[in-house]
DNA sequence: GTGTGCATGTAAGTGGTTACATGATTGA
DNA sequence: TCAATCATGTAACCACTTACATGCACAC
Protein backbone atom coordinates (compact mmCIF):
# COMPACT_ATOMS: atom_id res chain seq x y z
CA UNK A 1 0.00 0.00 0.00
CA UNK A 2 2.96 2.35 -0.53
CA UNK A 3 2.49 5.47 -2.57
CA UNK A 4 -1.23 6.03 -2.38
CA UNK A 5 -1.20 9.27 -4.31
CA UNK A 6 0.50 8.89 -7.66
CA UNK A 7 -0.08 12.07 -9.62
CA UNK A 8 -0.39 10.29 -12.96
CA UNK A 9 -2.65 7.27 -12.54
CA UNK A 10 -1.43 4.15 -14.36
CA UNK A 11 -3.09 3.96 -17.83
CA UNK A 12 -5.76 1.53 -16.81
CA UNK A 13 -5.62 -0.35 -13.59
CA UNK A 14 -9.03 -1.86 -13.87
CA UNK A 15 -10.90 -2.73 -17.02
CA UNK A 16 -13.59 -0.24 -17.93
CA UNK A 17 -17.20 -1.37 -18.05
CA UNK A 18 -18.86 -1.63 -21.44
CA UNK A 19 -20.82 1.52 -20.67
CA UNK A 20 -17.64 3.56 -20.67
CA UNK A 21 -16.71 2.23 -24.09
CA UNK A 22 -20.20 2.90 -25.33
CA UNK A 23 -20.00 6.52 -24.23
CA UNK A 24 -16.54 6.87 -25.69
CA UNK A 25 -17.85 5.22 -28.83
CA UNK A 26 -20.53 7.87 -29.11
CA UNK A 27 -17.69 10.39 -29.23
CA UNK A 28 -15.73 8.41 -31.82
CA UNK A 29 -17.97 9.65 -34.60
CA UNK A 30 -17.14 13.00 -36.20
CA UNK A 31 -17.99 16.04 -34.12
CA UNK A 32 -17.98 17.15 -30.49
CA UNK A 33 -20.94 16.97 -28.22
CA UNK A 34 -22.26 17.65 -24.73
CA UNK A 35 -23.36 15.08 -22.21
CA UNK A 36 -26.92 16.07 -22.84
CA UNK A 37 -26.59 15.45 -26.56
CA UNK A 38 -24.92 12.14 -25.89
CA UNK A 39 -27.90 11.06 -23.86
CA UNK A 40 -30.31 11.89 -26.65
CA UNK A 41 -28.13 10.01 -29.10
CA UNK A 42 -28.01 6.99 -26.88
CA UNK A 43 -31.79 7.11 -26.57
CA UNK A 44 -32.17 7.28 -30.31
CA UNK A 45 -29.82 4.50 -31.33
CA UNK A 46 -27.70 2.71 -28.74
CA UNK A 47 -30.82 1.91 -26.77
CA UNK A 48 -32.12 -0.47 -29.40
CA UNK A 49 -29.31 -2.97 -29.16
CA UNK A 50 -27.43 -1.98 -26.06
CA UNK A 51 -29.15 0.36 -23.60
CA UNK A 52 -29.16 3.95 -22.69
CA UNK A 53 -27.48 4.90 -19.43
CA UNK A 54 -29.08 7.49 -17.16
CA UNK A 55 -27.94 11.03 -17.86
CA UNK A 56 -26.21 11.24 -14.50
CA UNK A 57 -24.30 8.10 -15.43
CA UNK A 58 -23.19 9.64 -18.69
CA UNK A 59 -21.81 12.67 -16.91
CA UNK A 60 -19.99 10.40 -14.47
CA UNK A 61 -18.59 8.32 -17.30
CA UNK A 62 -17.39 11.44 -19.11
CA UNK A 63 -15.54 12.59 -16.02
CA UNK A 64 -13.87 9.23 -15.69
CA UNK A 65 -12.96 9.20 -19.36
CA UNK A 66 -11.49 12.67 -19.01
CA UNK A 67 -9.45 11.64 -15.98
CA UNK A 68 -8.00 8.84 -18.09
CA UNK A 69 -7.15 11.27 -20.86
CA UNK A 70 -9.51 9.60 -23.29
CA UNK A 71 -11.58 12.72 -23.84
CA UNK A 72 -11.07 16.45 -23.44
CA UNK A 73 -13.69 19.03 -22.62
CA UNK A 74 -14.04 22.74 -23.01
CA UNK A 75 -16.56 25.08 -21.53
CA UNK A 76 -18.92 27.24 -23.55
CA UNK A 77 -17.10 28.19 -26.74
CA UNK A 78 -16.69 31.83 -27.81
CA UNK A 79 -19.99 31.88 -29.70
CA UNK A 80 -22.09 29.76 -27.43
CA UNK A 81 -23.43 31.64 -24.47
CA UNK A 82 -24.53 28.81 -22.23
CA UNK A 83 -22.79 27.03 -19.44
CA UNK A 84 -22.22 23.90 -21.33
CA UNK A 85 -19.29 21.56 -21.60
CA UNK A 86 -18.40 20.02 -24.91
CA UNK A 87 -16.47 16.78 -25.14
CA UNK A 88 -14.18 15.42 -27.81
CA UNK A 89 -12.28 12.17 -28.03
CA UNK A 90 -8.47 12.29 -27.89
CA UNK A 91 -5.99 10.26 -29.91
CA UNK A 92 -5.29 8.27 -26.76
CA UNK A 93 -8.99 7.62 -26.33
CA UNK A 94 -9.40 6.56 -29.92
CA UNK A 95 -6.49 4.20 -29.57
CA UNK A 96 -7.85 2.66 -26.39
CA UNK A 97 -11.27 2.27 -27.97
CA UNK A 98 -9.81 0.64 -31.06
CA UNK A 99 -7.86 -1.73 -28.81
CA UNK A 100 -11.01 -2.62 -26.99
CA UNK A 101 -12.96 -3.11 -30.20
CA UNK A 102 -10.27 -5.28 -31.72
CA UNK A 103 -9.14 -7.23 -28.69
CA UNK A 104 -11.78 -9.77 -27.81
CA UNK A 105 -12.32 -12.80 -29.98
CA UNK A 106 -15.71 -13.11 -28.35
CA UNK A 107 -18.01 -10.18 -27.73
CA UNK A 108 -19.74 -11.93 -24.83
CA UNK A 109 -23.22 -13.26 -24.37
CA UNK A 110 -26.19 -10.99 -24.90
CA UNK A 111 -28.32 -10.22 -21.88
CA UNK A 112 -32.06 -10.18 -22.35
CA UNK A 113 -34.39 -9.09 -19.58
CA UNK A 114 -37.89 -9.47 -20.85
CA UNK A 115 -40.47 -8.61 -18.18
CA UNK A 116 -43.32 -9.76 -20.38
CA UNK A 117 -41.88 -13.25 -20.62
CA UNK A 118 -41.45 -13.30 -16.88
CA UNK A 119 -45.19 -12.72 -16.56
CA UNK A 120 -46.04 -15.31 -19.14
CA UNK A 121 -43.74 -17.79 -17.43
CA UNK A 122 -45.76 -17.16 -14.27
CA UNK A 123 -48.99 -17.32 -16.22
CA UNK A 124 -50.53 -19.95 -14.00
CA UNK A 125 -50.98 -17.23 -11.37
CA UNK A 126 -53.14 -14.92 -13.38
CA UNK A 127 -55.98 -14.93 -15.87
CA UNK A 128 -55.59 -15.74 -19.56
CA UNK A 129 -57.26 -12.44 -20.41
CA UNK A 130 -54.75 -10.43 -18.43
CA UNK A 131 -51.88 -12.28 -20.04
CA UNK A 132 -53.29 -11.62 -23.48
CA UNK A 133 -53.66 -7.93 -22.65
CA UNK A 134 -50.02 -7.74 -21.63
CA UNK A 135 -48.89 -9.30 -24.88
CA UNK A 136 -51.13 -7.00 -26.89
CA UNK A 137 -49.71 -4.03 -25.04
CA UNK A 138 -46.23 -5.26 -25.81
CA UNK A 139 -47.04 -5.50 -29.48
CA UNK A 140 -48.21 -1.91 -29.48
CA UNK A 141 -45.06 -0.74 -27.75
CA UNK A 142 -42.87 -2.69 -30.10
CA UNK A 143 -44.56 -1.12 -33.11
CA UNK A 144 -43.74 2.27 -31.67
CA UNK A 145 -40.11 1.30 -31.22
CA UNK A 146 -39.95 -0.05 -34.72
CA UNK A 147 -41.08 3.31 -36.02
CA UNK A 148 -38.36 5.02 -34.01
CA UNK A 149 -35.68 2.71 -35.32
CA UNK A 150 -36.78 3.25 -38.87
CA UNK A 151 -36.67 7.02 -38.36
CA UNK A 152 -33.18 6.76 -36.90
CA UNK A 153 -32.10 4.56 -39.77
CA UNK A 154 -33.43 7.07 -42.29
CA UNK A 155 -31.34 9.79 -40.70
CA UNK A 156 -28.16 7.76 -40.99
CA UNK A 157 -28.88 6.99 -44.64
CA UNK A 158 -26.08 7.81 -47.01
CA UNK A 159 -23.67 9.29 -44.47
CA UNK A 160 -20.56 7.18 -44.84
CA UNK A 161 -19.36 7.76 -41.28
CA UNK A 162 -22.60 6.12 -40.13
CA UNK A 163 -22.22 2.95 -42.12
CA UNK A 164 -21.65 0.69 -39.14
CA UNK A 165 -24.24 2.30 -36.88
CA UNK A 166 -26.65 1.87 -39.74
CA UNK A 167 -25.98 -1.83 -39.87
CA UNK A 168 -26.72 -1.97 -36.16
CA UNK A 169 -29.95 -0.09 -36.74
CA UNK A 170 -30.90 -2.36 -39.59
CA UNK A 171 -30.31 -5.31 -37.29
CA UNK A 172 -32.51 -3.64 -34.69
CA UNK A 173 -35.24 -3.06 -37.23
CA UNK A 174 -35.29 -6.69 -38.22
CA UNK A 175 -35.11 -7.69 -34.60
CA UNK A 176 -38.18 -5.66 -33.71
CA UNK A 177 -40.07 -7.10 -36.65
CA UNK A 178 -39.22 -10.56 -35.42
CA UNK A 179 -40.24 -9.51 -31.92
CA UNK A 180 -43.69 -8.79 -33.31
CA UNK A 181 -43.89 -12.20 -34.94
CA UNK A 182 -42.73 -13.82 -31.75
CA UNK A 183 -45.46 -12.07 -29.80
CA UNK A 184 -48.12 -13.14 -32.29
CA UNK A 185 -46.93 -16.72 -32.12
CA UNK A 186 -47.05 -16.59 -28.35
CA UNK A 187 -50.60 -15.27 -28.48
CA UNK A 188 -51.51 -18.32 -30.53
CA UNK A 189 -49.77 -20.61 -28.05
CA UNK A 190 -51.64 -18.95 -25.22
CA UNK A 191 -54.95 -19.54 -26.96
CA UNK A 192 -54.25 -23.22 -27.34
CA UNK A 193 -53.81 -23.64 -23.62
CA UNK A 194 -56.49 -25.77 -21.93
CA UNK A 195 -58.33 -23.78 -19.28
CA UNK B 1 -38.37 6.35 13.67
CA UNK B 2 -40.38 5.07 16.63
CA UNK B 3 -40.67 1.36 17.09
CA UNK B 4 -37.76 0.09 15.07
CA UNK B 5 -38.39 -3.52 15.87
CA UNK B 6 -41.89 -4.47 14.93
CA UNK B 7 -42.12 -8.22 15.12
CA UNK B 8 -44.36 -8.43 12.08
CA UNK B 9 -42.95 -6.11 9.39
CA UNK B 10 -45.54 -4.19 7.35
CA UNK B 11 -46.44 -6.28 4.27
CA UNK B 12 -44.23 -4.43 1.85
CA UNK B 13 -42.76 -1.03 2.51
CA UNK B 14 -40.75 -0.90 -0.65
CA UNK B 15 -41.54 -2.60 -3.92
CA UNK B 16 -39.51 -5.73 -4.49
CA UNK B 17 -37.22 -5.92 -7.52
CA UNK B 18 -38.23 -8.24 -10.34
CA UNK B 19 -35.50 -10.63 -9.27
CA UNK B 20 -37.28 -11.30 -6.01
CA UNK B 21 -40.47 -12.17 -7.89
CA UNK B 22 -38.51 -14.35 -10.25
CA UNK B 23 -37.02 -16.31 -7.37
CA UNK B 24 -40.39 -16.55 -5.68
CA UNK B 25 -41.81 -17.60 -9.01
CA UNK B 26 -39.32 -20.45 -9.19
CA UNK B 27 -40.84 -21.66 -5.94
CA UNK B 28 -44.42 -21.26 -7.14
CA UNK B 29 -44.21 -24.48 -9.10
CA UNK B 30 -44.96 -27.75 -7.28
CA UNK B 31 -42.21 -28.96 -4.98
CA UNK B 32 -39.67 -27.56 -2.56
CA UNK B 33 -36.08 -26.80 -3.44
CA UNK B 34 -32.77 -25.51 -2.19
CA UNK B 35 -31.05 -22.33 -3.25
CA UNK B 36 -28.59 -24.38 -5.18
CA UNK B 37 -31.32 -26.12 -7.13
CA UNK B 38 -33.00 -22.81 -7.79
CA UNK B 39 -29.82 -21.54 -9.37
CA UNK B 40 -29.59 -24.51 -11.70
CA UNK B 41 -33.21 -24.03 -12.66
CA UNK B 42 -32.69 -20.40 -13.38
CA UNK B 43 -29.70 -21.29 -15.54
CA UNK B 44 -31.73 -23.82 -17.44
CA UNK B 45 -34.84 -21.77 -18.16
CA UNK B 46 -35.21 -18.29 -16.70
CA UNK B 47 -31.90 -17.30 -18.21
CA UNK B 48 -33.22 -17.50 -21.75
CA UNK B 49 -35.78 -14.76 -21.41
CA UNK B 50 -34.95 -13.08 -18.13
CA UNK B 51 -31.54 -13.78 -16.65
CA UNK B 52 -30.02 -15.87 -13.99
CA UNK B 53 -28.96 -14.12 -10.77
CA UNK B 54 -25.68 -15.08 -9.10
CA UNK B 55 -26.03 -17.85 -6.54
CA UNK B 56 -25.16 -15.47 -3.72
CA UNK B 57 -27.94 -13.22 -4.90
CA UNK B 58 -30.40 -16.08 -4.82
CA UNK B 59 -29.50 -16.87 -1.23
CA UNK B 60 -29.89 -13.20 -0.32
CA UNK B 61 -33.24 -13.04 -2.07
CA UNK B 62 -34.44 -16.16 -0.27
CA UNK B 63 -33.55 -14.63 3.08
CA UNK B 64 -35.46 -11.48 2.22
CA UNK B 65 -38.44 -13.48 1.01
CA UNK B 66 -38.39 -15.46 4.22
CA UNK B 67 -38.24 -12.29 6.35
CA UNK B 68 -41.35 -11.13 4.51
CA UNK B 69 -43.07 -14.40 5.23
CA UNK B 70 -43.32 -15.29 1.55
CA UNK B 71 -41.34 -18.49 1.92
CA UNK B 72 -40.47 -20.88 4.71
CA UNK B 73 -37.39 -22.98 5.06
CA UNK B 74 -36.40 -26.07 6.90
CA UNK B 75 -33.03 -27.60 7.47
CA UNK B 76 -32.02 -31.06 6.32
CA UNK B 77 -35.06 -33.32 6.57
CA UNK B 78 -35.05 -36.53 8.61
CA UNK B 79 -33.71 -38.59 5.72
CA UNK B 80 -31.31 -36.14 4.19
CA UNK B 81 -28.00 -35.98 5.94
CA UNK B 82 -26.54 -32.80 4.54
CA UNK B 83 -26.58 -29.30 5.85
CA UNK B 84 -29.01 -28.02 3.32
CA UNK B 85 -31.96 -25.71 3.58
CA UNK B 86 -35.08 -26.36 1.60
CA UNK B 87 -37.49 -23.58 0.72
CA UNK B 88 -41.20 -23.61 0.04
CA UNK B 89 -43.60 -20.83 -0.86
CA UNK B 90 -46.26 -19.84 1.69
CA UNK B 91 -49.88 -18.92 1.05
CA UNK B 92 -48.93 -15.30 1.76
CA UNK B 93 -46.13 -15.53 -0.76
CA UNK B 94 -48.35 -17.07 -3.39
CA UNK B 95 -50.88 -14.32 -2.84
CA UNK B 96 -48.29 -11.57 -3.14
CA UNK B 97 -46.87 -13.15 -6.27
CA UNK B 98 -50.32 -13.46 -7.83
CA UNK B 99 -50.96 -9.81 -6.99
CA UNK B 100 -47.74 -8.84 -8.66
CA UNK B 101 -48.46 -10.97 -11.70
CA UNK B 102 -51.95 -9.58 -12.07
CA UNK B 103 -51.38 -5.96 -11.12
CA UNK B 104 -49.57 -4.25 -13.95
CA UNK B 105 -51.34 -3.51 -17.20
CA UNK B 106 -47.90 -3.14 -18.75
CA UNK B 107 -45.06 -5.52 -18.08
CA UNK B 108 -42.44 -2.90 -18.90
CA UNK B 109 -39.95 -2.57 -21.70
CA UNK B 110 -37.52 -5.35 -22.43
CA UNK B 111 -33.86 -4.63 -21.90
CA UNK B 112 -31.42 -5.97 -24.42
CA UNK B 113 -27.69 -5.65 -23.92
CA UNK B 114 -26.01 -7.07 -26.95
CA UNK B 115 -22.21 -6.75 -26.78
CA UNK B 116 -21.82 -8.01 -30.33
CA UNK B 117 -23.95 -5.21 -31.68
CA UNK B 118 -21.93 -2.73 -29.68
CA UNK B 119 -18.83 -3.96 -31.51
CA UNK B 120 -20.53 -3.84 -34.87
CA UNK B 121 -21.78 -0.35 -34.14
CA UNK B 122 -18.15 0.60 -33.53
CA UNK B 123 -17.07 -1.33 -36.59
CA UNK B 124 -15.22 1.59 -38.12
CA UNK B 125 -12.54 1.08 -35.47
CA UNK B 126 -11.62 -2.47 -36.35
CA UNK B 127 -11.10 -4.73 -39.32
CA UNK B 128 -13.93 -6.31 -41.33
CA UNK B 129 -12.36 -9.73 -40.73
CA UNK B 130 -12.41 -9.32 -37.00
CA UNK B 131 -16.01 -8.19 -37.08
CA UNK B 132 -16.97 -11.18 -39.19
CA UNK B 133 -15.20 -13.49 -36.77
CA UNK B 134 -17.18 -12.03 -33.86
CA UNK B 135 -20.45 -12.60 -35.67
CA UNK B 136 -19.48 -16.14 -36.58
CA UNK B 137 -18.56 -16.81 -32.97
CA UNK B 138 -21.92 -15.46 -31.91
CA UNK B 139 -23.71 -17.76 -34.31
CA UNK B 140 -21.88 -20.74 -32.82
CA UNK B 141 -22.79 -19.71 -29.29
CA UNK B 142 -26.39 -19.12 -30.25
CA UNK B 143 -26.63 -22.59 -31.74
CA UNK B 144 -25.43 -23.99 -28.45
CA UNK B 145 -28.05 -22.03 -26.54
CA UNK B 146 -30.72 -23.17 -28.93
CA UNK B 147 -29.82 -26.74 -28.19
CA UNK B 148 -30.10 -26.07 -24.46
CA UNK B 149 -33.49 -24.45 -24.84
CA UNK B 150 -34.77 -27.33 -26.85
CA UNK B 151 -33.55 -29.76 -24.22
CA UNK B 152 -35.26 -27.76 -21.50
CA UNK B 153 -38.43 -27.63 -23.55
CA UNK B 154 -38.38 -31.39 -24.02
CA UNK B 155 -38.18 -31.87 -20.27
CA UNK B 156 -41.23 -29.70 -19.66
CA UNK B 157 -43.20 -31.58 -22.31
CA UNK B 158 -46.54 -32.91 -21.18
CA UNK B 159 -46.31 -31.80 -17.56
CA UNK B 160 -49.39 -29.66 -17.08
CA UNK B 161 -47.86 -27.56 -14.29
CA UNK B 162 -45.21 -26.48 -16.79
CA UNK B 163 -47.58 -25.27 -19.45
CA UNK B 164 -46.70 -21.61 -19.07
CA UNK B 165 -42.97 -22.08 -18.63
CA UNK B 166 -43.11 -24.15 -21.76
CA UNK B 167 -44.67 -21.34 -23.70
CA UNK B 168 -41.83 -19.13 -22.48
CA UNK B 169 -39.32 -21.72 -23.64
CA UNK B 170 -41.02 -22.05 -26.98
CA UNK B 171 -40.78 -18.31 -27.34
CA UNK B 172 -37.09 -18.52 -26.47
CA UNK B 173 -36.54 -21.24 -29.00
CA UNK B 174 -38.11 -19.18 -31.77
CA UNK B 175 -36.21 -16.16 -30.58
CA UNK B 176 -32.87 -17.92 -30.83
CA UNK B 177 -33.72 -19.17 -34.28
CA UNK B 178 -34.48 -15.64 -35.32
CA UNK B 179 -31.26 -14.52 -33.66
CA UNK B 180 -29.42 -16.82 -36.05
CA UNK B 181 -31.20 -15.37 -39.05
CA UNK B 182 -30.47 -11.87 -37.82
CA UNK B 183 -26.79 -12.69 -37.54
CA UNK B 184 -26.69 -14.15 -41.04
CA UNK B 185 -28.39 -11.09 -42.44
CA UNK B 186 -25.89 -8.86 -40.65
CA UNK B 187 -23.05 -10.86 -42.13
CA UNK B 188 -24.47 -10.11 -45.54
CA UNK B 189 -24.78 -6.41 -44.70
CA UNK B 190 -21.19 -6.38 -43.51
CA UNK B 191 -20.03 -7.89 -46.77
CA UNK B 192 -21.74 -5.22 -48.79
CA UNK B 193 -19.85 -2.49 -47.02
CA UNK B 194 -17.38 -0.59 -49.23
CA UNK B 195 -13.84 -0.89 -47.89
C1' DG C 1 -6.91 -39.69 -1.85
C1' DT C 2 -8.31 -36.49 -5.13
C1' DG C 3 -11.21 -33.88 -7.90
C1' DT C 4 -15.99 -32.71 -8.97
C1' DG C 5 -20.47 -31.57 -7.64
C1' DC C 6 -23.57 -30.25 -3.88
C1' DA C 7 -24.44 -26.76 -0.64
C1' DT C 8 -24.26 -22.28 1.94
C1' DG C 9 -22.81 -18.23 3.07
C1' DT C 10 -19.86 -13.46 3.93
C1' DA C 11 -17.43 -9.22 2.53
C1' DA C 12 -16.19 -5.82 -0.38
C1' DG C 13 -16.90 -3.37 -4.08
C1' DT C 14 -19.01 -1.53 -8.55
C1' DG C 15 -22.46 -0.12 -11.56
C1' DG C 16 -26.21 2.07 -11.99
C1' DT C 17 -30.70 4.39 -10.74
C1' DT C 18 -33.83 7.94 -8.71
C1' DA C 19 -34.59 12.11 -6.70
C1' DC C 20 -33.17 16.42 -6.03
C1' DA C 21 -31.17 21.09 -6.97
C1' DT C 22 -30.04 24.72 -10.07
C1' DG C 23 -30.21 27.83 -13.69
C1' DA C 24 -30.20 29.65 -18.54
C1' DT C 25 -32.74 29.92 -23.08
C1' DT C 26 -36.55 29.67 -26.19
C1' DG C 27 -40.98 30.13 -27.85
C1' DA C 28 -46.08 30.49 -27.21
C1' DT D 1 -44.91 35.12 -18.02
C1' DC D 2 -44.97 30.53 -18.17
C1' DA D 3 -43.76 26.05 -19.73
C1' DA D 4 -40.60 23.27 -22.11
C1' DT D 5 -36.07 22.22 -23.36
C1' DC D 6 -31.22 22.62 -22.65
C1' DA D 7 -27.70 21.70 -19.47
C1' DT D 8 -25.04 20.00 -15.40
C1' DG D 9 -24.35 18.05 -11.41
C1' DT D 10 -24.81 15.84 -6.27
C1' DA D 11 -26.44 12.49 -2.83
C1' DA D 12 -28.40 8.52 -1.41
C1' DC D 13 -29.37 4.21 -2.25
C1' DC D 14 -29.89 -0.48 -4.24
C1' DA D 15 -28.97 -4.40 -7.06
C1' DC D 16 -25.80 -7.30 -8.17
C1' DT D 17 -21.19 -9.43 -8.91
C1' DT D 18 -16.70 -11.36 -7.63
C1' DA D 19 -13.81 -13.41 -4.64
C1' DC D 20 -13.37 -15.89 -0.80
C1' DA D 21 -14.22 -19.46 2.88
C1' DT D 22 -16.05 -23.80 4.27
C1' DG D 23 -17.31 -28.49 4.29
C1' DC D 24 -19.70 -32.87 2.92
C1' DA D 25 -20.46 -36.73 -0.55
C1' DC D 26 -19.27 -39.46 -4.17
C1' DA D 27 -16.89 -41.52 -7.97
C1' DC D 28 -12.54 -42.70 -10.10
Automatic annotation (TrEMBL), chains A, B:
It comes from the Bacteria. Pfam families: PadR, Vir_act_alpha_C. InterPro entries: Tscrpt_reg_PadR_C (IPR018309), Tscrpt_reg_PadR_N (IPR005149), WH-like_DNA-bd_sf (IPR036388), WH_DNA-bd_sf (IPR036390). Gene3D superfamilies: Winged helix-like DNA-binding domain superfamily/Winged helix DNA-binding domain (1.10.10.10). Residues 23-98 form the Transcription regulator PadR N-terminal domain. Residues 113-190 form the Transcription regulator PadR C-terminal domain. PANTHER family: NEGATIVE TRANSCRIPTION REGULATOR PADR (PTHR43252:SF6), TRANSCRIPTIONAL REGULATOR YQJI (PTHR43252). This is PadR family transcriptional regulator. The lineage of its organism: Bacteria, Bacillati, Actinomycetota, Actinomycetes, Kitasatosporales.
Amino acid sequence: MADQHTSAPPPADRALPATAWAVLGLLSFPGERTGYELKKWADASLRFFYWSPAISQIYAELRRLESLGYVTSRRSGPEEPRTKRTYAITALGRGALADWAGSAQDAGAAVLKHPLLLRVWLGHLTSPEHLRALVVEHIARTKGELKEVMDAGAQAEGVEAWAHPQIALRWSERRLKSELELAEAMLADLDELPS
